[in-house]
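Re: beginner question about structure tokens

> Can someone show what the tokenized structure looks like for a real chain? I only ever see the sequence side.

Sure, here's an example I had lying around. Input first:
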Amino acid sequence: MAVRNRTASIAATFGRSGRMIARRRLLIGAGGLAVAGLAGRAWQQGLLGGDNPALAAWDDWASQRQAGPLKLVGAGVLASSPHNTQPWTFAIGRFGVDIFEVPGRNLGTMDPFGRERLAGLGGAIHNMALASTALGRAAKVKLLPDPQNPAHVARVILGPDGSGPAAHPLLPFIARRHTHRGAWRGGPVSEAKLAAVLAFPAFAGVKVALFAASSPLGKRFAALTDEATVAITGDAAMMADSHRWFRHERRDAERLMDGLTLATSGVSPWLATAGAMLPAQSAADEGKYWLASTRDVHLPTASLFGLILTPGPHDRRSALLVGSAWQRLHLNATSAGLVAQPLNQLPEMIDREAQLHAPPRFARAADALLDDSAWRPSFAFRLGLADAPAGAALRRPVSAVIGPPARMAWEVEPWKEAGGAY
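And the corresponding structure tokens:
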């Protein structure tokens, strides 16, 4: 779920010696045409004016427009996913909801084994389990319920009315949780906030490790993340697979309702609007500026770095649980007034080396961060404090992600027959 953005490219264009030239072109260009062009490009990038239908899913949940099992799907589509690929579809039955993986919504060489894609699905499953408490119905979650269909990643079975616990206190934060890719304040986070972030039920085979950014382990994490970013940006296939999920134009964002945009890249609104004047980047340029953002913004302004660990990062069940843990951790952080961002360069390079059958340089280097090398890094992130919240990312609405059941006559089984749970 590492994010490639245009922060450094914009800053370079409007900074240092280029500032005066850019300012003249923007502010006193012939007859104000540059300003008009700026506004036009800003509108095309979705930075100015008009309702954006690709953001309506957030308001649909916050305003409680959905009812019954549709409410579960409404929460699921707001989960974090790698590069905002949203790799899911849902089938609604009389007694609950089935969740399916869409392998075609992938990151290619950035995620060759689907580890991050499954983490995104795990996040959706966790949101849906929380959302069941808004219905007053108990919920049981079965992971990988159909051996004949590996893409059938989970089933949420709902109990009868009045069978569930009280509404979960994190429900309002499902629509407030956004990835913050900008500069943060840095500095320590209180013990009370840390305890709040880590307060969630244990997921079998999953652990969370946190390091203060200023600690030796934090500095080692930052150094390894920098090295992994250098490796990724030097890999043309990885950057091409990353680049195809960036939506440069408003029309693409509103049509596809997924991927990354300049509006949520982490730059200030003025800088984002100015950057809208620039032509769309190539994958190589995107890599260059993402590396600069990682070095100059993401790593130095974090308060904490973290890893979500599991003995089997490529085991499908484990990958789903890692994603559920990340979703809960991010919701907790949002509730505690903290901001968060995935920084998955290290596990991405571990996977890429495995795909290429190359020496496992990054896997070995990661051992320096681990108390027990049997527990492997499956997800990496930063936490901290920021002066302003992050903006909402594009989302496909519930109506766009409801599909048919996995098999003819497939139906979510009634509560009394549901056995296993999450």
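Each token stands for a local structural state, so reading them left to right follows the chain. The CA atoms of residues 122 and 320 lie 4 Å apart.
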